Structure formats: C-alpha cells, structure tokens
C-alpha cells in the first residue's frame, strides 16, 4: 500500500486527478513536518487553492508549501468552468481512494485538517458558518462504520480515523 497527495481538477472536460504524488521520504522532506505539542509525531503539510482573479474566477492555482525552500510550489493551475455543481464553493477533503471502491476498507494513518481559511476580498478569513457549509462524509467505509469522522471544532478542524 502506498500513500499519495493529489490535486483534483474540477474544470477539466472530464474532471479527475490532475496531479498525484507519492508521499515518499523525499516528498516528506520537502512538504511535511512533524507536529509538536499534543500532535507530536503527526506529519503536517500546508496547501492553498487560490482563485487567480476573485472578481472573474475562471482560473485556480493549487500550491503546496515547500519547507526546504520556504516557498509555495505550484502543483496545479486549472482554468474553465467548474463541473462541481457547487458554484464557486471549494472544499477540504481526504479520500481513501481506490480500495474503497472495491469494498475494501484498509487501515490508513488518521488524517486531520485544522485552521481552515478562505481568501476573500477582505483577506484571509477563518471559516465560519457564513463562509462554509456542514461537512459531508460520502465514502463507503464511513457509511459502513469501518471509518469514523469527527468534527472537533465546526468550520475549523476535522479528523478521519480508520480501523
């Protein structure tokens, strides 16, 4: 079993994974760090998805923070009309993609997202009920109860656990 970090392109003619990178040790050296405090031992990474022109949002750029260079690496730039059906809304997500489509719920390390922010014309804002909607868990392994999903702080932090 391997672990990957990916970028989904909703603006492509046929939406799908545009970038998938193995989270090998060289990838982790650049893009992940060990958390401290109560999260000691967990890896974390920072990502951004930015509308290149918020007034006429037809291009989006996805960046991953490179700790080695202290810069944001462009991973995906996509232009066009989103095929999400959600308008200009974005999301934060994790998928146990692949095996779960075959009815297998493998054991993965837990994953957490925290300090979720959105960039508005007024600058970066932490999510609030006005800037987000309830989280939705739509994966067969969550539906069967094999995986669990916890919202620790609404609009701020969520966590997924596997067996």
Mean pLDDT: 74
Measured by DSSP, the beta-strand proportion falls in 35-45%
Query: What distance separates the N and C termini?
Result: 15 Å
Poorly predicted ranges: none
Summarize the biggest pleated sheet.
3 strands, antiparallel
Order of helices and strands: EEHEEEEEEEEHEE
Number of strands: 12
Structural class: mainly beta
Q: What integer value in Å does the Rg equal?
A: 16 Å
Q: How many helices?
A: 2
Taken together, the total number of domains comes to 2
Determine the fraction of residues in helical runs and give it as a percent range.
under 10%
Which term fits the overall shape? globular
Biggest sheet, spatial arrangement of strands: 5-6-7
Task: Tell me about this structure.
This protein is mostly beta strands and 163 residues long. The chain has 2 domains: 89 residues, no CATH class; 73 residues, no CATH class. Helix content is 7%, strand content 38%. Strands 5-6-7 form a 3-stranded antiparallel sheet, with no helix packed on it. The two termini are 15 Å apart.
